[in-house]
Recover the amino acids of this structure.
């Protein structure tokens, strides 16, 4: 009864494999934007900048920034949103800072900012 036994083992093996396949959870298909929003600091590099204007009411800051590698952006002066308006409280025009930024929901957004060490 060697053959039937082998056949049974083969069939059992297949059944286990199929069951494992069926039970394995689907790979979560989170869009890249969501992943970036949840952990923006992971990929974004720090960029040096000078604060030109702080708009606390609008939650925006104007920065004269150096090249931003992760956004493929050359040096320029531009307005950024911030993820939290509290980030603007310690900033004033003329401050030298470093920051990380990402494109969140289509808008360039500062995700971290701190004053540069003198
Ligand atoms: Cu820019």
């Amino acid at each position: 009864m060697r053959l039937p036994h082998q056949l049974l083992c083969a069939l059992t093996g297949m059944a286990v494999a199929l069951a494992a396949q069926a039970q394995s959870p689907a790979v979560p298909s989170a869009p890249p934007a969501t992943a970036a929003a949840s952990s923006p600091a992971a990929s974004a590099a720090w960029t040096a900048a000078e604060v030109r204007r702080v708009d606390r009411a609008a939650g925006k800051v104007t920065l004269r920034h150096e090249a931003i590698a992760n956004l493929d952006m050359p040096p320029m002066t531009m307005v950024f949103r911030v993820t939290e308006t509290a980030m603007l409280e310690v900033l004033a025009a003329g401050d030298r800072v470093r920051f990380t930024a990402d494109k969140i929901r289509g808008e360039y957004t500062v995700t971290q900012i701190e004053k540069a060490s003198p």
In short: Residues 29-41 have pLDDT under 50 and may be disordered. DSSP finds two helices and five strands in the chain. The first strand starts at residue 47 and ends at 55. Strands lie at 47-55, 60-65, 76-82, 96-104, 107-115.
